[in-house]
């Protein structure tokens, strides 16, 4: 195998890792999304933009209020008791997972 072929193989394996992590994160986001009537959970979408790019989105009007975590503004509570820290800890954990898996590709 030439160096060029080996590099191409590593690149393909890295792209595979990105796809796996994107899909795992998508499943996790659906799983942790708080449920009242289910609209927010059902509004998740995943899209492969290119070999290197994925978009995970939830365009429900109030999604950002829930996903930003529980907080109080002028004495009024915003967010969800079911997801008090919002999505930041989950996204941080998946960033570590992605970096670890990419570092293992040889």
Question: Can I get a quick summary?
Answer:
The protein has one domain (3-104). Helix content is 53%, strand content 18%. The protein is built from four helices and four strands, in the order ααββαββα.
Task: Describe the protein.
The chain is an alpha+beta fold and 106 residues long. The protein has one domain. It has four helices and four strands. It has a two-stranded antiparallel ribbon with strand order 1-2. Strands 3-4 form a two-stranded antiparallel sheet. Strand 3 (71-73) and strand 4 (76-78) form a beta hairpin. It is elongated. It starts with a helix and ends with a helix.
**Low-confidence segments:** none
End-to-end Cα distance, whole Å, is 14 Å
Query: What is the string of SSEs from the N terminus onward?
Result: HHEEHEEH
Mean pLDDT reading:
96
In spatial order, strands of the major sheet run 1-2
Major sheet description: 2 strands, antiparallel
Computed structural class: alpha+beta
Rg from C-alpha positions?
A: 18 Å
Total strand count, please? Answer: 4
Number of helices: 4
Instruction: Kindly give the count of domains.
Output: 1
Strand portion: 15-25%
Helical residues, percent: 40-55%
What is the topological layout?
Blueprint: H1 3-32, H2 39-42, E1 44-50, E2 53-58, H3 63-67, E3 71-73, E4 76-78, H4 88-104
Entry keywords:
single chain; two-stranded antiparallel sheet; alpha+beta; elongated; 106 residues; two-stranded antiparallel ribbon; 4 strands
